Hints:
By secondary structure, this protein is α/β, with parallel strands linked by helices. The protein is built from eleven helices and nine strands. Helix 8 (about 140-145) packs parallel to helix 9.
Amino acid sequence: MLEQLKKNYFFAVIRGKDEKDAVxxxxxxxxxxIKNIEITFSTPxxxxxxxxxxxxxxxxxxxxxxxxTVMSTxxxxxxxxxxxxxxxxxxxxxxxxxxxxxxxVLYFPGCAxxxxxxxxxxxxxxxxxxxxxxxLGPSFIKDIHGPMPDIDLMxxxxxxxxxxxxxxxxxxxxxxxxxxLASRVADSGxxxxxxxxxxxxxxxxx
Length: 206
């Protein structure tokens, strides 16, 4: 699963206004080629959204639904019970990693320093989320990969169509895309999510 997540490359970080909004954003992101779906716990009834999406895409083995903004082991367990395949948090928690290992799911903690990254890697976190990505920038990956070349790093926050290729060139194993995906929903409907998702995919493939 880890290799497929990295092959998919893009994580849609979804903060829905409600359950329906989150499901529609996720669905249209998948239509546009983004197959890793991260439902944040800032979304109302996030567990229900995770359950519904798992059911909707049960026949597509390339789609993975996980949970984001996992701030505690309690939320982590709720996400796992709902069927989340991976957990993402803005911080690094040893307790969440221990729970993830015990429950056979993947945990991607948020880190912003070399010490945090090394510590998370040492206890087995397979991908380290660089957060906030917009502050750290693509050059941060090159700097970290100098002394720690084998650590998989995924920026989240500040990733745009304009700079996503720079992140990949710098060595990002994946990228998290948040508000940019749904930025035109109010004006252009959910089809705009599909269009934006495709533009991200094309920016990297091109």
